[in-house]
Amino acid sequence: MSLEPATLWHATAAPLPAFDRLAGQHEADLLVIGGGFAGLSTALHAAQKGLSVILVEAHRVAWGATGRNAGFVVPNFAKVDPDEVRARLGDRAEALISMAAGSGDLVFNLIRRHQIDCDAAQVGWIQPSHSDAAFAKAQDRVRQWSALGRPVQRLDAAEVTALTGVSGWRGGWIDRSGGVVNPVGYARGLARAAAEAGARVYEETPVTALIRKGAQWCATTAAGQILARKVVLATNAYVGKLWPDLARNFFPLRVFQIATAPLPAAIRQRILPEGQCVSDSRRNLFTMRFDAQNRLISGGMHMLALGADGRVPRGIHRRLMHMLAMPDLPPLAYQWSGIAAVMPDFLPRVVDLGPDLIAGFACNGRGIALSTAMGRELSDWAGGTPIRALALPSRAANNIPLHGLSRMAPNALLPISMLRDRMESRRNI
Ligand SMILES: Cc1cc2nc3c(=O)[nH]c(=O)nc-3n(C[C@H](O)[C@H](O)[C@H](O)COP(=O)(O)OP(=O)(O)OC[C@H]3O[C@@H](n4cnc5c(N)ncnc54)[C@H](O)[C@@H]3O)c2cc1C
Phi, psi at residue 126, to the nearest 5°? Predict the structure, then answer.
């Protein structure tokens, strides 16, 4: 398996010298397994607390979903809003809600503080509404998040068109604390900051076994061993065989991304003139943003895995042409895919895997902001905060029923989702 996937972000991010492979015997207060946003943020914040930290990544930093995403910084939950979180979690809700609400600011503050070169722009995230019901929900979302002091705003249809260059949406809303980054640049910057704070970062070092030895955990790698008091599994959807039970706790969702060749400056001006990122309210959501070189980026999912690598990127490109009414859209320049871990209830959580061993999941399409914020929480756990006092809900490993079949549901149900989207839309957007 290659050490770096061929994404736009890997091709254009500021380089980072490779970290060594781990060899020999090592000890640490905290071992973090996985070099994505969750692991890197955990390692950075734990090292800043004065803990001795080792982070090991099987490939290079940002190999997983972290390097393959769209770079949208979205400071809220997918599909769930504060009122519903309160109804579900009771008095444990407020800490999680404020973690999410502040997560965009956390990302951009880290970027400023550590001078991370990643084309960051805190210009906002827009969610246009495809139907009247979705617009009503958008207005309710504005009510709920503005009550928390967030810089959110309702947008009418004309305002959405002016901000996106696309007509046909019913309205929408914007959270101006969101924005865009080059995710590989951001992850590499976090890795550098973690190392500067004292964390020992190793690449090309897959952990092949993790066992309890007395009061510690012992992780085995190809050329060494690590003894650690506490362990964070930050492997997300890429956990593989290391902890098979964990893989049955989420739905793995394969998501494709494309980038066009750069758009001419004159056309660039009328699409997303302020540079926000957009993901609309449809179940088969439409997304778009520009990178720093005016390439247009969008994403989508597959129904059938067979032949998806060729078919799906072409379909995403066609959808972009349709949405922008631009038959002469520049051709595809990059295409890639990654696996996101979707939790059944769409909320971030920690999974308690035994004494001093936890895994964190914050994805659901919000992994940049929420995984960064989750990492700070996990570092508190490493420093002694009990799991139940963290902002994230926790639970023991809990297999999703019939996981072998149900794991295919998000992709298999896509045609039904598309049909429902179309029936609800006022216009064929
Ligand atoms: C295509 C796509 C688009 C997305 N778009 C967005 C977006 O625009 N905005 C957003 O906020 N979120 C988005 N997401 C979600 C986001 O990318 C993820 O939530 C986030 O990157 C997860 O980070 P992570 O650190 O938990 O996991 P990952 O980035 O997946 O990292 C896990 C790492 O663990 C390593 N690993 C696994 N096993 C071992 C082992 N045994 N030993 C050592 N290392 C190991 C892997 O190599 C991998 O690098 C998207 C996801 C996908 C797939």
Answer: -115, 135
- Convert the pLDDT of each residue in 275-303 to its tens digit: 999 999 998 899 999 999 999 999 998 77
Please state the separation of Cα 328 from the chain's center in Å: 31
Domain 125-175+251-342+403-429 fold is: D-Amino Acid Oxidase; Chain A, domain 2 (3.30.9)
Which amino acid residue places its CA nearest to atom 41 of ligand 1?
Answer: 207
Cα–Cα distance, 251 to 40 (Å, whole number): 23
Nearest atom within ligand 1 for CA of residue 338: 53
DSSP designation for 62? T
Assess contact for 323 and 286: CB atoms under 8 A: yes
In this chain, the answer to whether the domains covering 1-120+177-249+344-398 and 125-175+251-342+403-429 adopt an identical fold is no
Alpha carbon distance 300, 312 (integer Å): 7
**Which residue out of 288, 368, 378, 379 has the highest number of ligand 1 atoms within 8 Å of its CB and is therefore the one to mutate?**
368
Q: Which CATH architecture has domain 1-120+177-249+344-398?
A: 3-Layer(bba) Sandwich (3.50)
| 3 state DSSP class of 242 | coil
- The 10s digit of each residue's pLDDT in 326-337 is 999 999 999 999
Go through 93-105 and write b for each residue having 16 or more CB atoms within 10 A of its CB, e for each that does not. Answer: beebbebbbbbbb
The series of mean pLDDT values per 10 residues for the chain, 429 residues long, is: 89 97 98 98 98 98 97 94 96 96 98 98 98 96 97 98 96 98 98 98 98 97 98 96 89 93 93 97 94 97 79 95 95 96 87 95 85 98 96 82 69 73 72
Output the residue whose Cα is nearest ligand 1's atom 42.
206
Residue 235 to residue 58: CA distance in whole angstroms: 10
Residue of 296, 244, 246, 241 lying closest to 267 (CA atoms): 296
Pocket test for ligand 1, best of 4, 211, 238 (most atoms within 8 A of CB): 238
Residues having CB closer than 6 A to ligand 1 are 33-39, 56-59, 63-66, 68-72, 74, 206-207, 234-240, 242, 255, 257, 299, 338-340, 363, 365-369, 371
Domain ranges of the chain: 1-120+177-249+344-398, 125-175+251-342+403-429
Phi and psi, residue 143, nearest 5°: -55, -45
Ligand 1 closest atom vs CA 59: 47
Contact 163, 17 (CB under 8 A): no
